[in-house]
Amino acid sequence: MRTKKVLSPLCMVLVLAATTAAAPVPVEAQVRRAAVANTATPSDAVMLTVHLHHDQSRPLGELREQLDQQGFYKAFPPEGVEVVSWTVAMGIGQVVVLRLPASRLAEVNLALENTAWGAYRTAFFPTYDLKDAARARVMEARAVK
């Protein structure tokens, strides 16, 4: 009686690795993979509200000069982080809402620590979008008489 030889899982992994390692991955595919990995998906996306409270004791020109020297606009927001909104709340400062993969939270924090401090005091708030739910509640409430 003849027996079949079955490849062990380790052997199969080695064969697969050897055959795929020989084929180079085009640069475009590598860039696409990197972009996908750095883009928030619904399952890993977080929204973050950043308050940038400017130092009101200093002139705006001086603050802008400091931000330029520290490379603020080169570093923030990091490449690939979505800016949902960037507004000014007069008397408070700038309010920036970002959407990003949770894995990039530290990168956003470091970009601000390294380039915004001194010109801004920063505050961070985890955020979620309530607009659709709030709109539904308003419609429901207005429909009841």
What can you see in these coordinates?
The chain is of the alpha+beta class and 145 residues long. The chain has a domain at 45-133: 2-Layer Sandwich (Alpha-Beta Plaits), CATH 3.30.70. The chain has helices at residues 9-21, 27-37, 60-70, 72-75, 105-115, 131-143; strands at residues 45-54, 82-89, 93-101, 120-127. It has a four-stranded antiparallel sheet with strand order 2-3-1-4, with no helix packed on it. Strand 2 and strand 3 (93-101) form a beta hairpin. It is flat and about 55 Å long. Mean pLDDT is 80; it is low at 6-25 and 27-36.
A few lines on this structure:
This protein has 145 residues and is an alpha+beta fold. It is 43% helix and 24% strand. The protein starts with 8 loop residues before the first helix and ends with a helix.
The percentage of residues in β strands lies in: 15-25%
**Computed Rg:** 25 Å
Structure class: alpha+beta
Instruction: Quote the average pLDDT.
Output: 80
N-to-C series of helices and strands: HHEHHEEHEH
CATH topology name of the domain at 45-133, in short, is Alpha-Beta Plaits
Question: Superfamily at the CATH H level of the domain at 45-133?
Answer: Lrp/AsnC effector binding domain/regulation of amino acid metabolism (RAM) domain
Biggest sheet strand order reads: 2-3-1-4
Low-pLDDT stretches: 6-25, 27-36
Q: Would you report the number of β strands?
A: 4
What is the helix content? 40-55%
Write the layout of secondary structure elements.
Blueprint: H1 9-21, H2 27-37, E1 45-54, H3 60-70, H4 72-75, E2 82-89, E3 93-101, H5 105-115, E4 120-127, H6 131-143
Antiparallel strand pairs: 1-3, 1-4, 2-3
